[in-house]
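Annex B. Sample input.
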Amino acid sequence: MQEKICELLWLQIPGVCRLTQQCVHHMSGMLVEDTPQNAADVQELLGEYFRNGGKLTTQEINKICQKIFDTLGKEQLIKKEKKHTLAAEQLPQEIILSEMDFYLEKESETIKFEDLFKEQVATNTNEQIQKKDRKEKLRQKEDVKAKEAYEKHIKTIKEQKTHIPPARVRHSKADQDGKKLDIVIDKLSIIVGGRALLEDTNLQLIYGQKYGLVGRNGIGKTCLMNALARYEYENADKFRHIQVLLVEQEISETDKNPVELVLETDMERLELLEQKDKLENSEDLNAGLKLQEIYERLELIEAHLAEAKAIKILQGLGFTNDLMFRKTKHLSGGWRMRVSLARALFVQPDVLLLDEPTNHLDLDAVMWLEDYVINCKHTVIVVSHAREFLNVVCNQVIHFYDQKLTPYTGNYDQFEKGRAEKNINQRKQFDSQQKKLSHMQSFIDKFRYNAKRASLVQSRIKAIQKMDLIDEVLEDPSCVFIFPNPEKLRPPMLRIEEGYFEYQLGKPILKGLNFAVEMESRVAIVGANGVGKSTLLNLLTEQRRLTEGNYFRNPRLRISMFTQHHIEQLDLMKSPLEQLMTTFPGASGETYRSHLSSFGLNGNLQLRPQYLLSGGQKSRISFAMAVWNNPQILIMDEPTNHLDIDAVNALIIALNNFTGGLVIVSHDQYFVSTVCDQIWYIKEERLKKFNGDFDDYKRALSEGKLA
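Annex B, continued. Sample output.
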């Protein structure tokens, strides 16, 4: 029965409602479990789904629910419960009214009319309780199903990670003798969860080239990188001699320090050193010969230089001597991600896959990584939201769009220009071809049955069949963010005077702190990792209190803060709509949906469990939550992490249109340059204003001229 109801629902649901098959199946189950007795019951069960799935008015929803109820009854898919009703019936015999008093008096001795009323109320109450219980049981079933789906998703991700080859140094590359290190894949297809991400496309990776892989959030860039790293594509065995390494997002917590974790990727070196130690303490007469072989091999693989090389890479990524030899379990997630990056750089694979490598890196580390990628001789593929990083390191761009991979020569700026020109030319060619086809088709239709012109008609039909059709240019849907503008407040807004803060007695994090924020402020806070940038943001939002100094805040001021930590706090089992409704109860469904739409979360995205969303889509949810209270000052910590470049551009436009104050911690050069008009940096526990733009700051930093 449920399948029939499910089919019926599909026919009744209007096209504007974007409901998934899973959602409609769930709705049909509700109708089976809790049989509606009228259209109002249908509206109570399904109304919220129609509101969430499409912008329908209450009147439209009522009409749909009435139609569904009528059709269910007509198709005999529901059984109406019998109700007690009052009706006029013919009496079986005459009743003498004067005799009724006697009977009424006798009945009143044993029956009270109010008891009948109470009994009816109790019956109705029991029915309501049973109905509520059925709903609760159905909800619990759906929760169990959702949890099982989530656990299955997590298990799949873990299995995919286990199939990714570990970071291992290859000293012997005999299997590469005489073989090219290019990867050329024809008709590449990638299907995930029954959905085709790529279909019959070509991918060509020439050894030594630096590629930028670009495309919208959620389109499948990370899935493509995973497939390349796992050799999961057709004819992958042809390329097994090529070492492809995907940087792990974050190394697991262990008792080992970063230097040890980097060095352990060289398994041959560790095994040789272990054998050397055993033989040096051995009484075996042949130990000397074996030791000589080991010494020669250690010399050949330059084992004595390995530790210095590992330390140099870690230093380049910002590790101090203290952090370098600290147990990894005591490091933050950002530092553990750097350890993963250091391991990959130490291994030097033939093809290095970097997924958002600049996340968690300060400007010094980003510049060091730029130099490393440019100068390494191997193939590198980079997925990054940082336009300037792509401009500096990439000489090729691969555009992932519409299940195809399109190559472009040059960096990201050149790709944008080249793609725009290509689209203009393709659009002209498409329009010209369509006119030609229309003219030929008109001739065919006009003279199809004219015997005298049959040969001309046939020649045109053959010409159309042989013609290589030019694809229509499909525009990328524009990504738009809309930040609500707050009401104006008179200054002063937010100010710290002679601030001093320490976590441990006598060890200042910030001192001599003088800083003010107004509604016109557009401030970027920069500096090395660990100098106190996040601490400053916490002081501004009163999540931390000054140890000494004065803090002033306008009593009417609303402040909101966006951090990557907020993304981690999302309930992944909930949909974006449920997340917003739970966090900020009391608003109408239309208000929640409209607010999410302001951040590019439309249709089914609002109803999809958050564990199925990309990192960029989760960031959008966090943006929507951060500005729910319509703040006058918005504080953001690395807001561009996880966003694609189009989303970064949308964020830039939204922030430039925002009439409140901004304080942003970011090392994204393009983002800071286009949003902020002030740069403040932290050095030696002091916050200082830099006189110049971001290019000037970057130059001063590289030349060691920051005071």
